[in-house]
Design brief:
Elements: E1 50-51, E2 66-68, E3 75-77, E4 81-84, E5 105-110, E6 126-131, E7 137-146, E8 152-164, H1 178-181, E9 184-191, E10 204-205, E11 216-224, E12 229-238, E13 244-258
Length: 259
C-alpha cells in the first residue's frame, strides 16, 4: 500500500483527538461506465492538445442521486465509488497525532441553504463534500471509464476547502502559517491501465493544489490509456486536525485530447 507523505519539514501543532470509529475496507467493486456524447469540452489550461470529446464521466457534476457505501456517514455520488486510508494509518509528519488518519464523512450537497452562503456549489444544483472536523484524512472517489487504448485523456475539476483551526467564520480559512496554507490538498489522478488501487504506483497524479474559501481549478492531469479501461481519482488530503476541515468538489471533467 502506498501512503501519502507530506513534506517532511512540517512543524506539528497541537490537535484534538478525533471521534471517528469507522473501519472501512479499501476493496470497492467498480463497474465500467459508458461514454457519453454532448457539448465538447473547452480547452483546459495545463493539458496539451485539443479537446475532442464531451465529458466522458458519469455524473461528473454530482447532479445525480447518492448512495451509502459501508456506512451511513459515507454517501457516494451516483456513478462513483469512495476510497480512503484506513482509520489508524500513521502520520509520519505529525507524531503528536497518535490516532493517525481517520475516515471523513462524504455526501452530495445542494446549492441551497446551508450551502449557499458562502456558495459551496460551483455549477448546477449539487456538489460533493468531504468533512473531517478534528481529524486528518486521505480519501476521495473514483470511477472507471471504457476507452480506446493509446488515446490521451485530461482530467480537470473545481474545488475549495474551509480549513479553520479554531474560528467559525465559514468565509475565511485559517491561513496564517505555511502549515495552515497546506492543510487542504486537492489532487486528480488517472490510472492509465484501469487499476482500482488509489495507492498504486501506476496512478498518475496532478500536482497538489491548496485551494481555500472559493472554487478554483484543481490542477489537471493528462496521460495516455494503456488498455481499454482507465480509472479516474478525485482525492482530498487533510494534514491537521483543525476544528473545521471541509473539502468541496464540483465540475469534474474527463475529456479525450488530440494533438
Amino acid at each position: 500500500m502506498v501512503t501519502y507523505t507530506a513534506t517532511p519539514t512540517i512543524e506539528p501543532i497541537p490537535t484534538k483527538p478525533p471521534t471517528d470509529t469507522l473501519t472501512p475496507s479499501l476493496t470497492p467493486t467498480l463497474s465500467p461506465t459508458y461514454l457519453f456524447t454532448g457539448t465538447p469540452v473547452a480547452p483546459i489550461v495545463g493539458c496539451s492538445g485539443i479537446p475532442a470529446s464531451a465529458n466522458l464521466l458519469n455524473n461528473g457534476g454530482f447532479e445525480g442521486e447518492q448512495q451509502p457505501q459501508e456506512s451511513a456517514y459515507i454517501k457516494v455520488p451516483e456513478g462513483w465509488v469512495a476510497f480512503w486510508l484506513p482509520a489508524g494509518t500513521p502520520l509520519a509528519y505529525d507524531p503528536q497525532n497518535t490516532s493517525g488518519y481517520q475516515v471523513p464523512e462524504m455526501h452530495v450537497i445542494p446549492s441551497h441553504a446551508p450551502y449557499a452562503d458562502p456558495p459551496r456549489v460551483f455549477e448546477g444544483a449539487q456538489a460533493f463534500r468531504m468533512i473531517g472536523n478534528d481529524r486528518a484524512f486521505d480519501a476521495g472517489i473514483m470511477q472507471q471509464i471504457a476507452v480506446t487504448p493509446g488515446e490521451t485523456f485530461c482530467l480537470s475539476g473545481q474545488g475549495h476547502a474551509w480549513s479553520s483551526f479554531r474560528g467559525d467564520d465559514p468565509y475565511h480559512s485559517t491561513l496564517l502559517s505555511s502549515d495552515d496554507r497546506r492543510n487542504a490538498n486537492f489532487r486528480l489522478g488517472i490510472d492509465p491501465s484501469g487499476g482500482t488501487d488509489p495507492w498504486a504506483s501506476s496512478v498518475v497524479w496532478s500536482p497538489v493544489a491548496n485551494l481555500y474559501d472559493e472554487y478554483q481549478p484543481i490542477l489537471p492531469v493528462q496521460t495516455q490509456a494503456k488498455g481499454e479501461m482507465i480509472t479516474v481519482f478525485v482525492r482530498g488530503t487533510i494534514l491537521w486536525r483543525f476544528a473545521h476541515n471541509e473539502m468541496f468538489f464540483d465540475a469534474i471533467v474527463l475529456a479525450r485530447f488530440v494533438p
